[in-house]
Amino acid sequence: MSLSVFVTFWAVSVLFVITPGADWAYAISAGLKGRVVLPAVAGLLSGHVLATLIVAAGVGTLVANHPLALSVLTVTGAGYLLWLGVGMLRDPATPHTDPSEAPGSPRRWALKGLCVSGLNPKVFLLFLALLPQFTNATAPWPVPLQMLALGLVHTLSCSVIYLLVGFGSQAVLGARPAAARRVSRLSGAAMIIIALVLLIEQWLG
Predict the structure, then answer these.
(1) What is the pTM for the complete model shown?
(2) CA distance 9 to 7
(3) Mean pLDDT in each 10-residue stretch from start to end of the chain (205 residues)?
(4) CA geometry: angle at 92 spanning 88 and 97, to 5°?
C-alpha cells in the first residue's frame, strides 16, 4: 500500500472526524467532569478499533447483507444514545472543581465510551463503505491487513480530535458553570437527535 493512499484516506478520515456527533458530545461531557477525558476517549477509540476488526474480518459484509442483524444494531445503538442524551439533559455535566467529589469511575467512562462508538451503526457503516474503497487486491499486503492499517489511521485521527475536544471543553468551560451546563445540554440534545434520526431512517427503510 502506497503512502499516497494513506495520505488520501487520512484526509477523508479527518473530514469525518471533525464533524460533530455523538463522539464529540461524549468527549465534551467527559471534559466537563475533569479527570476522565483519557479513559472516555480510550473507550471511544476502542469502539472504532472494534469496528475496524469486524469489517476487516469480513463480518461487516455479512452483517450488512442481513437486514435483521443491521436493524438490531441500529435500534440498540439509537436506544443507548437516546438514554445517554436524556440523562445529559436531566443532569447536565458541570465543571468538576470539588476534589472530594469523584467524577466517576474511569473504567465506567471507558465502557460508556466503547458503547457510544461501538454501538453507533454510523461508525460501522462508515468503515464498511469507506475502507474497501482504499484497498488494492493486487497489493503486497492482504486486503484485511490493509483495512486494519487504514482503520488504525482513522483511529489515530479520532484520538487527536477527541482529546482536543475533551481537554478544550475543560479549559474553555472549566470556570463557567452556566455555560458548561448549556453546552452539556446541547450535547445531550445532539445525542437525542442522532438517535431519533437513526430510528427514523430504520423505520422508513
Answers:
(1) 0.78
(2) 5
(3) 78 83 87 87 94 81 67 78 83 57 77 88 75 78 86 92 90 72 79 83 75
(4) 135
Alpha-carbon span 183 to 173, nearest angstrom: 9
Fill in the DSSP letter of residue 137: T
Q: At what angle do helices 121-130 and 67-90 cross, to 10 degrees?
A: 130
What is the number of other CB atoms lying within 10 angstroms of the CB of residue 200?
11
Whether 85 and 192 have beta carbons less than 8 Å apart is answered as yes
SS (H, E, C) 86-127: HHHHHCCCCCCCCCCCCCCCHHHHHHHHHHHHHCCHHHHHHH
Residue owning grid cell 482536543: 164
Q: How far is CA 190 from the centre of its chain?
A: 13
- For residues 120 and 99, what is the distance between their CA atoms, to the nearest angstrom? 33
Q: Which of 57, 78, 164 is nearest to 121 (CA)?
A: 78
Distance of CA 131 to the CA centre of its chain: 17
Angstrom distance (rounded) from CA 97 to CA 164: 20
C-beta separation of 128 from 60 below 8 A: yes
Residue type, 87: G
For residues 190 and 93, what is the distance between their CA atoms, to the nearest angstrom?
14
Specify the 3-state DSSP secondary structure of 174: coil
Q: How far from 88 is each of 62, 135, 143, 151, CA to CA, in Å?
A: 35, 40, 41, 30
